Please model this.
Amino acid sequence: MNFDWTDMAGALHKAAMPFAALLASSLLTLTPSNAGSVSRIDANDSQITVSFDGLVEGASTFSLIGPDRIAVDIKGGKAGRGGHATGMIKSVRQGQYDPNTARIVFDLDRPAVITDGSFSADGKSLKLSLQSVGGHVLKKGRRSFLPPAQFRAEPPKKSYSVKVPLGKPQDKVALPKISGPKDKSRPLVVIDAGHGGHDPGSVSPHGGKYEKNVVLAIAKAVRDQLIASGRIRVAMTRETDKYLVLEERYGIARRLDADLFISIHADAAGNQSASGATVYTLSEVASDREAAKLAARENRSNIINGVNLGGSNQDVSSILIDLTQRETMNVSADFAKLLIREGQRMIKFRANPHRFASLVVLKAPDTPSVLFETGYLTNKEDVELLSSRSGQSKVAIGIANAIEAHFARKLAQR
Ligand code: ZN
Model:
């Protein structure tokens, strides 16, 4: 079995969910029948204990930050359900990462690392020592643990091996460099080019233009535009064709203490005459059916093989918003209006261009955030504009002008 994700790209935005679900179920049937299942998980502030109902090959752990998580991969293991956790561990999730590996994810309320660990003498449980770490100093890479040799499962025979050439989540997302003035009192904007890596986003019907490439070019043009003006500091969530889960994207903005987060996208629609730009801000309830559909599409970026790699284990089509987020949401809405006002000299907008949707990537509680759909890759004029240098720079000037105006206004309010 050799899935070429890019061949599926045309169908991806419309059919990602059924395809992903199909892929996951076909893999599950190939799980070695002798694999030990995760039968119990107990965790507190200092220790995690994972028990199995059979033998496994080994385990490895790694930490992720923004949102803070610890992942435990069980080689030769089958995922069970849930787990019991207290203290800094907010929740426990399990899923079959690949046919031979169960992944357990611990969602934390602060960064932590695994400092030590060992299997029991009978190989049927794994104890891990957990320690919270101040700041963002995390040890790189994985730590591996093996059961005693006589109680170690054999790796599956070749016939079980299935290659799934999909992107893997980063063990740790490094913070990007900040460009622009060195003065830290200058406002900082984080520009997020949507999608990337295995996730192409929307695809144009004929020209084979991928959203991930188009929006990266626009994001870079916005950065260059802002740097040229010399007033605003800029960081990008990605500058290459790499994949980040949605929480890692706004996590970067939060960790950098950014003043504004803008996620740049390009949409697709069944109706090829649909065209123009739309600005989305966060809301629990979508402003219209189309906005709800868009949120479902964009939030799906977190799902690979039917497993949600993001920090949210609830249905990604609806998210709960904290009351503390209201102030941030007001600033986001103000910026959305400004983006339309300042941008319309350069960018063609749709009717009612400010819409609301429950978009995971906008969920930073303390960073004003907007998602900007720059146009439709399914529309002939839009795709020509968005994939040409001159069009990209027009859109970038519109966005950069709005960002400058936003911070100028903030400064004047002080
Ligand atoms: Zn998108």
